[in-house]
Amino acid sequence: MENLTIKQASELLHKKEISARELAQAYLLRAEEKNPQLNAYLEITNKAAMQMADEADRLIERRDSNVLTGIPFAIKDNILVKGVPATAGSKILQNYTATYDATVTEKLKEAGAVIMAKTNMDEFAMGSSTENSAFGPAKNPHDTSRAPGGSSGGSAAAVAADMCVAALGSDTGGSIRQPAAFCGIVGLKPTYGRVSRSGLIAMASSLDQIGPMTKTAWDAAALLECIAGHNSMDATTSPVPATSYTKKLTGDIKGLRIGIPNEYFGDGLDANVEKSVREAIFALERLGATIGGATLPHTPYGLPVYYVLMPSEVSSNLARFDGIRYGYSAASPYPAGGEGRGELEAKTLLDVYTKSRGLGFGKEVKRRIMLGTYALSAGYYDAYYKKAQQIRTLIIEDFRKAFEEYDVLVSPTTPTPAFKLGEKEDPVSLYLADVYTVSANIAGVPAISIPCGTAERDGVKLPIGLQIMGRHFDEETILRVADAYERFVGGKS
Amino acid sequence: MLTPEEIKHIATLARIDFTDAEFEYLQREFDKILNFIAKLNEIETKGITPTAQVGGFTNSWRSDAEGYSADAVDRNALLDQAPKRENDHVKVKAVFE
């Protein structure tokens, strides 16, 4: 039972060649075995997983099952699973246990999926390497001296190392696609509003989206099918109905118009990455697609826009962590929250807020809260927040025009393959890891990263990611391109 | 470049207690990030409508009954998350002195 996709595992389960119990046991065992080295999991929920596996076996027996029934999943730690700790990679939530299920969790449970672990991540999803996790970085399974990417680095590492069959991540500026590229898996950021954010610990609410991290495009389609759709608990979910994405994977992309945005092939793009991406584009052409040059002229402004909008929304969303209702509190320091903090026992209510937040949050989180507070403070709102929102309009306009001419846009996912842990000391240089992914969040369009080759570094072959961006709510076309490419290069099915 | 007083003022607004070393570091980092963001000034944005969210939705309604019902969430479990609890209340420091 190794390296199974959702499709393969589901076939084995439904042919009764294996039971969900056996499958869960095999994956739990591998997870326990590999986690000390990779730190992909913050929590492995053995007991609950076995209960879900037994329930899955009953569902399969009763023929009340679907393709996700009995499949072992890992879930990013900022997504709530009732009764299971949800730290979001932060010390401030170290003692927090989720009191309800996120909508996506509920949907997975209804499908009979087996939730087996919570994955490591940058604190509150802020980072591109998982080095901002309060619980130590996750490691890239291809080379453990390298970052798995982030912020959904634990999910990406877990899928790549076969510690689960598939996982959920969240993507605010590239946090599903960039780690998927670094770890050599498939990562899909759906259209903003496609998947409910209810029960996702909010980072930047106008950008956040939950999505699949899987071994194949087919698996991503199957998982999206389960979690997509309107949800009354998230007012920004769209009434546009979700479709049966797996049924749209025909392998046929003849006549599809593919645009190559030239702004994504400029300075800073690694030569190996460019070569692999160009080869992948050539493969798409051989499959019958028409290739042409596209332009997204405001691309250079994507990251600066992001670093105004995101921290502003962060500063507002993270105001809830105040040491009063849950999590770490300076009013009542628990040992793990910081040894020798007794002397800091807060004396006033204001102390409780400032000291709980000062000690509970990590460096990058505090930096972003501060930046957002500044951008939104009196006298600066127009210069920063409003200005960024106006340029956001221009970026959306770029995509609208490009999609008049093309059905999808194809680019590298990241400028380089996985970098070394500790290599990016300067925050701005780390921000650049998201240069090709961030615009899709700003415009709200769906985008997928799929493996498209490798680059050799220190004798190790590191994966390279190909990004395919589509029109709003047109996940089926980007999935179809991804699947057609996989078939062409002879990937798993 | 922001002055130390300005940074301290923002920290007060953000309700975060920083050590002196953290303040010094923040000031340097802030500068780098503000320089990075300053690129936005290259674009004239007069008359361009700002986009707050891309869905294009206006109001979205649902009845309260569709939300989490009172018994869907365990009240005790919620209260247990509070750092300080007294009977059925979350305990906080005095608001007025």
Highlighted features:
heterodimer; A: 493 residues; alpha/beta; Amidase signature (AS) enzymes; 11-stranded mixed β-sheet; 11 strands; B: 97 residues; mainly alpha; Histone, subunit A
Question: What's the gist of this structure?
Answer:
The complex is a heterodimer of chains A (493) and B (97). Chain A has 493 residues and is α/β, with parallel strands linked by helices.
Beta content of chain B: under 5%
The main sheet of chain B orders its strands as 1-2
Assess the beta-strand content of chain A as a share of residues.
Answer: 5-15%
> Which ranges of chain B are low-confidence, i.e. pLDDT below 50, for 5 or more consecutive residues?
none
Fraction in helix of chain B: 25-40%
What is the string of SSEs of chain B from the N terminus onward?
A: HHHEE
Kindly report the average pLDDT value of chain A.
95
The fold-level CATH name of the domain at 4-42 in chain B is Histone, subunit A
> What gap, in angstroms, lies between the N and C termini of chain A?
15 Å
Order of helices and strands of chain A: HHEHEHEHEHEEHEHEHHHHEHHEEH
- Helicity range of the residues of chain A? 25-40%
Radius of gyration of chain B: 23 Å
Number of strands of chain A: 11
If you consult CATH, what is the topology of the domain at 6-255 and 470-489 in chain A? Amidase signature (AS) enzymes
Oligomer: heterodimer
Structural class of chain A: alpha/beta
Count of discrete alpha- or pi-helical segments spanning 4 or more residues of chain A: 15
Shape, per Cα inertia axes of chain A:
globular
General description of the model:
The complex is a heterodimer of chains A (493) and B (97). By secondary structure, chain A is an alpha/beta fold. Chain A is 38% helix and 14% strand. Chain A is built from 15 helices and eleven strands. Chain A has an eleven-stranded mixed beta sheet, with helices on both faces. The longest helix of chain A is centred in the last third of the chain and has 24 residues, at 382-405. Chain B is mainly α. Classes of the chains: A alpha/beta (493), B mainly alpha (97).
